[in-house]
Amino acid sequence: MSNPSALQPQLNPILKLENIEVIYEKVIFAIKNISLVVGQNSIVALLGANGAGKSTTLKAISGLANAQRGEIVHGSINYKGKNITKATTSQLVESGLVQVLEGRHCFAHLSVEENLLTGAFINNPSQIKLKQQLEKVYEYFPRLKLLSKNLAGYTSGGEQQMVAIGRALMAEPKLVLLDEPSMGLAPQIVEEIFEIVKNLKDNEGLSFLLAEQNATVALRYADYAYVLESGQIANEGNAEHINQAHDLSASYLGAL
Fold first, then answer.
1. pLDDT at residue 149 above 80?
2. What does pTM read for this prediction?
């Protein structure tokens, strides 16, 4: 059960989901009655075990659920005050909503810098603008500048995660959906990436909705969190409320 005193303010949210339901293969319910809000300039965590519905929720928002034979059968998704429930992924990227997929998905045969540049093509920026965008990414990810000419496939998992986030930044987003950013990474690298996410929120005014199994680290950086269990929201609140909640247990979030 949610705690009304811990509810997130809903004034002018950048993203609002209302009773979203997604089914796969026309019969399998993946998520049901998902309602959540992401405020302007905030980090919101979507917590839960593997299979809880976190990735499906993000893909429903970004328009990628259809690629896996998923379908939104109920509810609405509003982004910056507009209904985007039926919008295509390319339309959403153009409007500033970008997803970083679980598993990073870099182009292994391209250099780090070439990977980053692919993120900007949808906006067709000038060469001057492109250079400015690259420099901003390198400002937040200085390690990528050192590796800019290296093939992405030969970089570490943490570096590839930085490439994936940096590539998303090249599209100049307002809202970034991050799917399992800590997966398979060393704790020190996880902290580094979350610090960068916080800096992007603070310095660039970006909003983040991140799906994460690692509740411990996510709750240190999130302004608000939703806990998913079996495709439905089991709890919600600020970090302190969620940390104290009896629902936050090893049974579906793993050891904390």
1. yes
2. 0.90
